[in-house]
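Worked example (supplementary).
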Amino acid sequence: MVSQPLIPVIAIDGPSASGKGTVAQGVAAALGFHYLDSGALYRTVALAAVEAGTNLENESRLSSIALNLKAEFSGDTVVIKGRDVTDAIRTERVSEAASRIAGLAKVRAALLERQRGFRRPPGLVAEGRDMGSVVFPDAALKVFLTAGPEERAARRYKQLMGKGMRATMAALLQEIQERDARDSDRSVAPLQKCADAVLLDTTGVPVEEVVTQVLALYQRAQQVP
Ligand code: C5P
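After joint prediction of all chains, the assembly is encoded as:
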C-alpha cells in the first residue's frame, strides 16, 4: 500500500479569478492526477446554508452543515443529493456567502479531512487559498497565482456571460476587491503566499503557458533530492 505522504500534491493558491481553476485542471489533466477545487466545497456549504436560511454567523450550525454535507464532485460538476448545483454555487450571492463562512475556524476545521481525502494515487492538484499553507503543507510543489484585479474581473465577467448570468464589470471589480480583502485579512488561514511557494503573475499570460510553467516547476521539484 502506498502511504499517504508519498502521494504527490501540487498546491495552487491565489485570489479569486486568478486562473487557478483552469490552470489546476490543465496540470491535473497533463499528469493524470486527481483535482480538488476546494473553493467549490466552501461554495457548496454556503449554498446549503443560504437555502436553509441559516444565519451566516452561526458558526456551530454552519460547521455542522459542512460536516454532514453530502456532495459529490466530479470534474466541474457538483451534485448534492441528486441535484446538480454546478451553476447554483457560482452566483455572486453564494460567492459572497462562501467568502464569509470561510472566515469561521469551525467551518474550515470541518472541511479539512474531507479535502485531504482527495489525496489519492497517482497524485493530486489542489487549488484554493490555503492548500500549501494548511491543507497540504508537505506538497511537492506550491504555486501562488496572481493577476491584476481588472483582469480578474474581466475573466469573471466572461465566465458569467458564458453561463448566461448577468453582471457588470464595475460591480464585479468591487466584489472581487472586497472578497480579496476579506480573504486576506481574516485571522484563520488567510490568503497569503507561503515562503516556499513560487509566485506566478498571470496578467496577460495565456492559460496554456501558465500550465506549461507549472509542469516545468513540478518536474524541477521532483529532481531536487
Ligand atoms: O476559489 P473560489 O472563489 O471558488 O472560493 C470561494 C470562496 O471560498 C473564497 O472567496 C474563499 O473565501 C473561500 N475559500 C477559502 N479557502 C479555500 C478555498 C476557498 O477560504 N481553500
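Two points are worth noting when inspecting this output. The first helix runs from residue 20 to 31. The CA atoms of residues 66 and 205 lie 36 Å apart.
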